Amino acid sequence: MRQSSVNMRQLTFAAIAAVVAAVVAGGVFALTPVGASSHREAPFIAGDPEADGTDLYSFVSPDNPEMVTLLANYTGFQPPAGGPNFFPFGDDVLYEINIDNTGDARDNLTFQFRFDTEFADGDTFEIPNTGPVTSLDDPNLNRRQTYSVSVLEGDTQGDTEREGRVIAEDLPVAPTNNGPNSYPEGYRQVAQEAILDLGDGITSFAGPRDDPFFLDLGGTFDLLTLRPLQGLEPVDDFAGLNVNTLALEVPKEMLRGPNDSVVGVRTTSYRESTNVLQDVGEPGEPFPEVRQTEGPQTQLSRLDLPLVNELLIALRDQDRWNASEPVDDAQFLEYVEDPEPARLLNERIGLEAPAPPREDLVSIFLTGIPDLNQPAEVTPSAQLRLNMDIPPSAEPDRLGILGGDEAGFPNGRRPADDVVDISLRAIAGATPFTPEFDVESNQLSDGNTANDVPFLDTFPFLNAPHDYAGATYSGAGGGVAGGMPDTGGVPYTDDFPDNDQPDSNEPDNEEPDGVLQRALQTLTGVFSG
Questions:
Q1: How many Å apart are CA 357 and CA 340, to the nearest integer?
Q2: Which one of 173, 177, 197, 257 is separated from 329 by 20 to 30 angstroms, measured CA to CA?
Q3: Could you tell me which residues come within 8 angstroms of residue 285 by beta carbon, excluding any fewer than 6 positions away?
């Protein structure tokens, strides 16, 4: 599969794929920001944040092109001042990152994460730590989470035991960043100790990170309001919030299949089917087991491409989607062939989206883009597909394929890829491949063009979690209006791997006010016919 610049046919397919992303997100041209990623996306999983996958990323490592980085985020909307318990991984949750390297919509390789929590001191109210912490083995670190990594090989559809081969265990989780007094020498150097070499070229990390997703979420769910079009400053409602990250960096050769270098990636979570609450005993006794779980593993969450479940799948089937496997995606075909958001576009603004059945969406959304990331032999299914033969871009473009960058979304997904703006611009017809629409609106944006903090240049690439002393937020859905203050314990002031990444995070040269003014002018033209 070629690695040169994008040809016209490939970019045409890419433009359609970006439109697919926008249709999936249910965006209404210039009035509606695309919905949140996959934070609390279905009725059942909204009540189980420990098992709720929020975002998935898969990309060739920019600092080592022979490696692939896999990031799976869970437990979204974490305010930094989330004490006293904060947000640990679930001891009774099985987390997985699943790989399909043959294109048949069945897993070939699965990485599994299991967690265990212990408290050093039960006679204190201080849950994370009882004093200053300077290392992961500091005796003041009270709550200690460890995890194991297992590998499950072969097709595991219907496997309710899910017992893989353990390749590493008793691995320390990066602790909660609960404040500068708790980390007098800086949180970053402690978290750095949680980046671990597992052997065979595999590196792992588990712990809290800054949530890398950026979007005006509040406006989205206030009757589809886009704040900047009302003359208000754009707000990133994920700024200042944290998330739990499972991170692996693995050699390409470990993932590569027999036919080509395209892999489909998803992340899933499981709990045992039976949950029993029990008596907790008398005060002063050892830590009680409040509940016990047993029985077959039951899939609770599924995440691959962003924005699918909450805005493409109908409400009645959203929990069913989370429990499904790609090989059975034919049961959701109707939502792709006749997507409700496309009908809304026609009704709301008169945009003449193609009539169903949408064979273009079936071929692109479910199979990957021909000549880019479509497997040689493919069974249609929704997966985050990555062509590992395409090297990292020397000058990453946040618009990915629409910006002429083959290494970006929807060929995998990097943290800096602006899936919101990609979708907005494509649904507006703002590409060179839709000349019947208004190409002049090609700067269309919700005003959020980068994450609130830079990404790291090295694994695990996501920045350190915010602490209460430096973060300005208004709870889940709150935003940071400015930069982080220069206080010694704030995670963005400590020495850590270089986190400057201007090529992938710089917004366009045009100021947001100008962008939005042009979008407003375009809207006027649309409504005036």
A1: 12
A2: 257
A3: none
Separation between Cα atoms, residue 189 and residue 118, nearest integer Å: 22
Which CA distances in Å does 359 have to 9, 375, 508?
A: 17, 18, 34
Angle at 57 between CA 55 and CA 62, to 5 degrees: 150
Q: Is the dihedral of CA 205, 164, 385, 2 positive or negative?
A: positive
Between strands 202-210 and 384-387, the pairing is: unpaired
Closest C-alpha among 154, 112, 130, 33 to residue 419: 33
Amino acid identity, position 469: A
CB burial of residue 37 (10 Å; 0-12, 13-18, 19+): buried
- For residue range 383-402, list pLDDT tens digits in order: 999 999 999 999 999 999 88
Starting at the edge strand found earlier in the chain, the sheet holding 67-78 runs 53-60, 67-78, 242-251, 202-210, 196-199
**pTM of the predicted model, to two decimals?**
0.80
Alpha carbons 377 and 441: distance in angstroms, whole number: 38
Q: Residue 10 to residues 3, 63, 64, 398, 442: CA-CA distances in angstroms?
A: 12, 27, 26, 18, 19
Q: Are strands 262-277 and 242-251 parallel, antiparallel or unpaired?
A: unpaired
CB proximity list for 505: less than 8 A, separation 6 or greater: 398, 416, 450, 451, 454, 455
Residue 430 corresponds to which amino acid? A
Residues 70/265, Cβ–Cβ less than 8 Å: yes
| Phi, psi (deg, nearest 5) at residue 211 | -70, 120
| Residues in a beta bridge with 529 | none
Please name which of 86, 90, 107, 89 lies closest in space to residue 98, comparing C-alpha atoms: 107
Is the pLDDT score of 154 beyond 80? Answer: yes
Q: Which residue type does 286 have?
A: P
- Furthest CA-CA distance within the chain: 74
pLDDT digits (tens, 9 = 90+) for 362-381: 666 788 888 999 999 999 99
DSSP state of 136: T
Is the C-alpha dihedral spanning 175, 178, 181, 187 positive or negative?
A: positive
| pLDDT, averaged across the chain | 78
* Residue pointed to by tokens 């003041």: 140
